[in-house]
Each structure stands twice: as C-alpha cells, then as structure tokens.
Amino acid sequence: MLHVNDVRKSYPTAEGLVSVLAGVSLDLDAGQSLALTGESGSGKSTLLHLVAGLDAVDGGTISVAGTALEGLDDKGRAELRRDRIGLVFQQFNLIPSLDVGANLAFQARLAGRHDRGWSTHLAEALGLAGLLNRYPEQLSGGQQQRVAIGRALAARPALILADEPTGNLDEASGDAVMGLMLGLVAKAGASLLMVTHSERLAARLDRRLHLRAGRLSDRVQP
Amino acid sequence: MIRASLAALLSHWWRHPLQLAMLLAGLALATGLWSGVQAINAEARAAYTRAETVLGQDQLDRIVATDGRLTVARFAELRQAGWPVSPLLEGRRAGLRILGVEPLTLPRAAAVPGMPMLGSDDLGEFLAGRLVLVAPETLDRPGVAEALAGLKPQAAPDLPPMTVLADIAAAETLLGARGEVTALLIDPGRPLPGPLPSGLERRVAVADQGLARLTDSFHLNLTAFGFLAFAVGIFIVHAAIGLAFEQRRPMFRTLRALGVPARTLGGLVLAELLGFALIAGLFGVGLGYGVAAALLPDVAATLGGLYGAAVPGVLELRAGWIVAGLGMAVAGTLAAAGQGLWQVWRLPPLASATPRAWAVAAGATRRLQALCGLGLLTLAGGALGFGSGLWAGFAVLAGLLLGAALVLPGLMALVLAAAGARARARGVLSQWFWADARQQLPGLSLALMALLLALAANVGVGTMVGSFRATFTGWLDQRLASELYLTAETPAEAARLREWLEPRVLAVLPIVSTETNLLGQPGDIYGIADHATYRDHWPLLSALPEVWEAVARGEAALINEQLSRRAGLGLGAVLDLPGGALPVAGVYSDYGNPSPQAIIGLEAFGTRFPEVQVLRFALRLPATEVEALATILRAEFGLRETAIVDQAGIKAFSLRVFERTFAVTGALNTLTLAVAALAMLASLVTLSASRLPQLAPVWAMGLTQAGLAGLDLARTVMLALLTAVAALPLGLALAWVLLAVVNVEAFGWRLPMQAFPGDWLWLFAAAGLAGGLAALWPAVTLMRRRPADLLRVFANER
Q: In whole angstroms, what is the distance from residue A52 CA to residue A85 CA?
C-alpha cells in the first residue's frame, strides 16, 4: 500500500540547510496500522506531509497504492489526496462556515464518492448524529476531532494519515476518539499511518516506528 | 469537486452576510458613482453629436444683407438668376430655437436629421407648414405645446433639444417674420454665376468650435471626480475582500490538503469574485442611473450657461456606459483582490493556517507602503515641475492623493506611538487606549485612507470653489461697471437711441465686437471707448504704464488671460490682428470665457472693421435712475424685454450659472464622503468579531461593557480626527494644484487661492461625525453582547 524508500528532506534556515529526514524507508501493507513516534523536530510530521504529497522529497521515492508521487505534478498530487488518502490533523481543520453534516461529507463529495448510508453510519458511530446541523465553533474539541475523522473516512480512502489526532484532547477524550478511529479504519479496510507522541496510543496500532534525528532508529514489532 | 469546493467557499459569505453586504455595497457604490458620471458624460456627448449634425447648415457659407434685412422676394430673384442658394430663417420663441428651411432647395451638405424619416404624407404636411420636427424630450417641456399651438409636432430623435425644425413658411408664422429670411445658404457643390449683387455680403462659415472640444475640460473634471469616488469605494472592497481572504486562509489550506488543486481553487475564487462583481456592478449601474438622473439637470444648466451647449435634462439608458460600468466593477474587484488572488494561486498546501494579520498590518509592509507613497509624492513633484498639459495636472493630483494615502498608516503609527509614550504617565487605561488604537490601525488603515481622500477632496474642491466665488464676485463688479446694457436691432435705431440718451445719462459707451481668428483660434475682438469706467474698473492682471492711453490711441491692445497663456503672449509681445499687428499693453482676467479675446480702441476698431455696426451700448447713470430709464426706453422706443439688461440682472445670472456649475462637484463630494464613512463602517463591522479576544480580558479585569464601547467609539473618532488633520494640508495642496495647474490648463485662467478656516471646522466636524457614525453600531453591539459571548473567548482557549 505505502512504500517509502530512502527519503531525504532538508529545509533552509538562517543557520544553513537543516536535514530533517536523512534516508527514511518503510512499508505499510493494506489494512495495517503503523504508529510513527519520535521527539519534537524528529521529522514525523514532515514524513507524513511528504507521504500526503503536501510537500516534495529532496531524494528517495514514495508510492501510495501503486502510484509514485515523484512523477506527479500539483494536480496529480491533489487528485491522489482527494481519491486515495484521508487526512486527520491535530488542529482539526474543519471548514468553519459549513455545518457538521456538510463537513463530514465534504471530502467524499470532492472525490465524487459520497455514500449517504456510509456517512450516516459514520455520524452515528462517531456520536455526531445529533450534531449534524451545528457549526464547528459550537462543538467541543473532542467533537471537532470526531468530525475530522469522519471526514477522512467518508470517502473510503486506501490510506489514512493522522497527525497527532488526539494531541489537542484530554486523555479520556483522546482514548475514546482513538478507539473510534481504529474501529472505523478497520471496518473501512484502510491502512493507517499515525504520528503521535504517545507511546500508550502507539501501542494500540499494529506496528510502531521511532524516528530520531531524521532516521528510523528503532523498529518495534507488536 | 468543483461544486463541493464552490459550496465551501460560498458558505463563508452565508456565515458572514454583513461582510458580503459591505463588499457588494462598496462595489455597487464605487460603480454607481463612476457610471453616474459616465452616464452624464455620455448624455452630454450624444447631445453635442446631435447638435453638430443638425447644424450642418452652420458649416455652409451664407449670404446676408449688409443692412440686416433679407427677404423671400430677394431669395426668389437670386434663385431665378441662377444662384444656388436656399433660404434659412432662424429665431427664438419661448426658449425654442426655430429653424426654418426650404427642403426643395436645401443643399445636400446641410444635413437635416429627421427629414429622411418623413413619409410622403408627412413630407407634404411639412412642406405645407403644418408639421414640424422636434426632439422627443423637448415635446414634454412646459410651454412647448403652447408655443407650437396649431402645428403638428413630430418627434425627431436626432434633433438637439429645444430646437424646432420647420418649413420656412411655418417658421415665418412662429417667429412673426412674414417674408423675412435670416440668410441664404450657398450650395458648395455648385459654382456661383457671378459677383454678389450690392447690398449683400458672403459670410464664410466659421469652423465649428466643437462643443465636445470646448467641454472636454468640464467632462474631464467630472471623470476625475467619478474616478476619485470609485477609488474610495474600491477601498471598501479591498478591505472586505482582504478580510475575507484572511478569514478563509485556513479553509484554503484545508481544501488544498483535501485534494483541490491550486489552479482549481484560484479559478473558483476568481469565479466567485467575478460573480459578485457582476451582481454589484448591475446594482451599481442602477445606482449610477439614479445619480446621473438627479445631477443631469444641473449639469445641463451648467453646460448651457458656460458653453451654450444644449443638453437634455432627461437621461437615456445607453449600452455603452452600462457595459463600461460593469467593466469597471470587474476591474475594480480584480484590482482590490489581486494580491489575495495571487496568494491563493501560489498557496502551498502547507502554508500556515493561522490567519496572519493583514498585509498592511505588517510593519515591513507598512514601511514599504510609506516608501511607495513618498515615491509617488516625488513623482507628483516631478510632474508639477516638468510636465505640461491637463494630463500632467491630473498626474500631479493622482500622485499627490495616492502618495499621501499610502504614507498615512505609517504616519499615524508614529503619532500613536508618540501619544502612547506620553500616555504612560496618565495611567494604565490611557496606555491601553493608545496601544489598542495602534493595534487597530492595520485593520482600519484602508478605511482611514479612504476617509483621507474624501476629506482632502472636500477641502480641495471647497477651497477652489470658495476662491472662485470670491474672485468671480469681485471680478463681476469690476467687469460690469456700467449700470445698464442696451442692444438696438438696427444701426438706425442705435443712432436714435444714442442721440436720445446722451443728454440724459452720465455716459453712453458703445460696445462693438467681431468674431475672428486670433492666432489660429476662433475668438473675439472688442472695441471700447476711452472712458474712466474702463480705466478705473477693468480687471487688469498686468499692464504697461499708460496702458489706457496707448489703447485709446490705437497703438496697443489688451488681451485676455486665456490668449496670453495659450499663445504665450506677455506684455510688449506683438499680437497679429486683422488690419495690422499691435503690441500687448495689458492682460485682463476673463473668467467663464473659453475663447481668446482682444480689446482695442474704439476708433482703431472702426478703421479695421468698418462693416461692424454699433448696436450695443453700456450706460453710466446713477443706480437709482436705472429702473426709471429702462421703463422710459421701453415705452419710447418699443424695445423688447431682452434689449435692456441691467447690471444686477447680468450678475445674478452669472452667479446662478456659477453656482450650478459647482453644484455637481459639491454633490459628488458629499457622496464621496458618505462612501468613506461606509468604508469605515465596513472595516469596523468586519473587525468587530476579531475584537472580542482583545476586549474580553480588559472586561474581565473590571471594565464595563459600556465603558469599553465608549472607549471604542472615542478611539475611532480620534483616528478620524487625526485623519482630518492630515487631510487639511493635503486638501490645500489639492486646491492649489486645481487652481494653479488644472484650471489654467483646462480653462486658461488662474485664480488666486484663498483660505476658508470656517470650512476647516466643518471638515473636522464631518470627519468626527463620519467616524462616530461608523463606530456607533459596533459600539452598541459590543455594549449589548451577552457576557457569555465574552466568556467564550476564554472557553475556546485550548
């Protein structure tokens, strides 16, 4: 499903070029979940952004569901995100002017794959059925993150990329949201690559990888 | 994808309807004022075109009688002798210009619009003197139906207003001039059979002065005002669009992250804006129609008074300015949104989602803006020093206004910083007041720039009009020194009047003039008597010693300021005149006259132009005897009402024309100020939502909501007043450019600038009022907010 091979990425700073990823390789099979842990600045989010095609690699290759990202232009990468990837951000990034129902269905509509039954199921499973007419500003943080997870799953993507999905939530809410997400990802048959600081949450996924100073320094099998 | 993305983009506006309303209102107002002015210009220009086509006969040489009397019998004699001539009878009745022609002999070159439309029946009626042609809008004017009683008026859209085209027989009846002819038009396509019989002379057609050319300056001024109002309106649009872009920045990023390509997103935002531009543009064009319809009667009166141009007071919908109005709305929107659109187009999917402050808020941008402003001010100075022509004048104005507007935010930031430093000693609230004002400045700077432009335009135009009024009134007193002005119909009547008057008044001063070419331009030469009336009163701007003696001896000429400036003729320069050149001994002011003019001594005039008869006189007599003398003259000589004009009447008429001239600019000024106030309201309303996180902590620390609202109101009024302080010197500079550069280029004369401190007080009051009114609603809204809304600021902190 996901092949990352010898990926390198640097950013220019005032002090010169700083290497964030220095040759990272990993594979993720269909239906598998993988946690990516590491200290702040270790390159976790950068790797996630590169996999999502939000940024371009300096070297190495990435392929998602058989599509190599290197050969894609902006339009191609956007199409890939739209059709094959679901993104869950730490900051939720809901569209504030759309109500919960519209936010939930949004990416599925973009991809032209809106399934009313699946959306209803997601809303019920995520406990959002009674909140469909509310706007994001009227929801708690936990509720907003549940909408973001529902939005990512609504188009039934092959790969879910989650960047600290519970980072803005308290422990109890985080656990609840995490449980819902894992259950729904499994039900959708998607793969999951999740960036997290939390070893406890990482332990709930099929595999774990640890990034340190831009390199995968530790491989932990479940 | 497109439908879902567009729905997401548009959902922002449904959630922020006030922002949408401000965007549409700003755009509609800007387009409205612009297209209103364009509608007026289009209407006037169409009238000039009509006037030029109907007056085709004015382009033909004509034969007139030297004694002023020409008859139909004489026409018949000439026609029988093989002369290719056609009779023309002209005159006025009840404010209508009656034009009598003889269609069967009328030369082809004398265009007569409306005639080809007549069917054979109507043509028969026309030739029989029962049908006349009139412009459609003239038919509805009061008194016209009565004046044309007994005739069948038919609408002819190509005729200029207030003109009646009739068969010569019908014209004879209308004018009560049985058997008379004003002139005989010569067919240019056929040779003349021989020399003119005695008693007749050929008048060569004077090249058409071109109303369009004459009035170009007036229309250019109107266009400049329209553009200024448009620019002020676009500030509102820029503010609304800028805020919308900032608020939607996270949405743009999310859309990009969810798979919407940058091009698609940019295209959708562009389509959304173009849709708004067209909707607002349509409203704007409708508004413009209303503005134009309201202002057109004044403009028509102005053009009639200043240039003798007949413009209908009724507005017609013209496709040209509707399309131009929509085009301006689209262009204005694109200009206002250009920066934001560019950012969306180039937005990387990982761009910061945090709404950053407006571009203008960034200190670096503000500095860059101020530098650009200083650059523009320098360019304006350059155009003033090295440029020439009317466009250079407008370039100076544009550079001055735009440069000052760009410098304003930086200047205000400096003033507020200085005030904040001083406020520290006065307590924490005062310190917060000034610090918060600085924080508000970026969001308000566009509105304050709009207010600056509107206020400066008010000061500038107010000073120009005031200076004009003061100078013009004094000038009229000088120029119209004689108490009564008299016009005889024939030389014989003039001689009888003169003989009768000389023992009864202090002085009878003959006035003679002739139209001629002065240095290549159509102008007038006057002959005046050697009298103290002129020596003591004539408004000379500059003169050589013993100027009047030299003029009386026929050894020198006076010229008007227009001729002096256009031809670069100073004192002592030699002026080419028919009958021999003369040195220029004086230059006089001649406001309201677009043409060059020269004055020579009465005797010299008689020698050079012996064919010109003395028909007009200026009379000097005690003011108390004016009315009685006028009554006696009418009774003794049967003079028409219009043959005797007293000084007070001419002054009143001139001042009325003057006031109407500036009524239009005054109205546009007020509208521009109203638009600027709306710009402030737009900015304050859109900012009010983002104000809560700034105000809630102060409220939590013990200030009441009413207190906060009061401080907000005071802050806005203070910012508006500071803007007024900046607008004052800018407005005075604007007035100086208008008086010393634009007016000189446009009209050919220069007025001394005068200051009106009383008006400045009004300026400050208007600025305070605009700021206060704009801040009132947001302040009341803040006052009425539930405490829960303010508490949410803290609850939302994560």
A: 7
Q: How far, in Å, CA of B14 to CA of B556, rounded?
A: 77
Name the DSSP class of B59. G
* Three-class SS state of B367: helix
Residues of A in contact with B797 (CB under 8 A): none
Determine contact, residues B86/B183, Cβ cutoff 8 Å: no
Distances B332 to A136, B94, B232, B338, B447 between C-alpha atoms, Å: 34, 47, 11, 10, 16
Q: What is the pLDDT of residues B299-350, one digit of tens each?
A: 776 666 555 556 666 667 777 778 888 898 898 888 888 877 887 777 666 6
Answer yes or no: do B250 and A106 touch at CB < 8 A. Answer: no
CB of B786 within 8 Å of a chain A CB? The answer is no
DSSP class per residue in A159-198 = EEEEESTTTTS-HHHHHHHHHHHHHHHHHHT-EEEEE-S-
The predicted-structure confidence for B750-774, as pLDDT tens digits, reads as follows 777 888 888 888 888 888 888 888 8
> What span, in angstroms and rounded, lies between the C-alpha atoms of A78 and A107?
12
Instruction: Say yes or no for a CB contact (<8 Å) between B257 and A93.
Output: yes
For A189, half-sphere exposure in the C-beta direction (CA atoms, 13 angstrom radius) is 3
- B544 in A contact zone (CB under 8 Å): no
Could you tell me the pLDDT band of residue B351, with boundaries at 50, 70 and 90? Answer: low
Q: Which long-range contacts (CB under 8 A, 24 or more apart) does B302-306 make?
A: B302/B218, B302/B657, B302/B660, B302/B661, B302/B663, B302/B664, B303/B44, B303/B215, B303/B218, B305/B656, B305/B657, B305/B660, B305/B661, B306/B215, B306/B218, B306/B592, B306/B594, B306/B657, B306/B661
Interface of A with B (CB under 8 A): 49, 52, 54-55, 74-75, 78-83, 85, 87, 89, 91, 93-98, 102, 106-107, 109-112, 135, 137, 141, 168
- pLDDT above 90: percentage of residues in chain A: 22
Candidate from A74, A83, A111 with C-beta closest to B261:
A74
| Interchain CB contact of B262 with A (< 8 Å) | yes
CB-based contact A182:A213 (threshold 8 Å) = no
Token duo for residue B629: 């003398």
Amino acid B428 reads V
Instruction: Give the β-pairing of B507-518 and A191-195.
Output: unpaired
Contacts of A110 in chain B (CB under 8 A): 1, 4-5, 258-260
* Torsion of the alpha carbons at A68, A72, A76 and A79, rounded to the nearest 10: 30
Contact B260 A87 (CB under 8 A): no
CB contact under 8 A, A82 and B15: no
Rg (CA), chain B: 33
B19 in reach of chain A (CB within 8 A): no
Model pLDDT for residues B357-368, shown as the tens digit of each residue: 333 445 666 788
What is the per-residue pLDDT for B599?
92
CATH code where residue A131 lies: 3.40.50.300
Contact (Cβ atoms closer than 8 angstroms) between residue B463 and residue B735? yes
The residue with tokens 């050929």 is: B202
pLDDT surpasses 80 at A158: yes
Answer yes or no: are the C-beta atoms of A79 and A112 closer than 8 Å.
Answer: no
Number of structural domains (chain A) is 1
User: A50 to chain B: nearest residue by CA?
Assistant: B350
d(CA B393, CA B383): 8
A67, two tokens: 């599509």
Residue of chain B nearest A74, judged by CA positions: B261
Containing structural domain, residue A115: 2-220
In SS3 terms, B283-343 reads as HHHHHHHHHHHHHHHHHHHHHHHHHCCCCCCCCCCCHHHHHHHHHHHHHHHHHHHHHHHHH
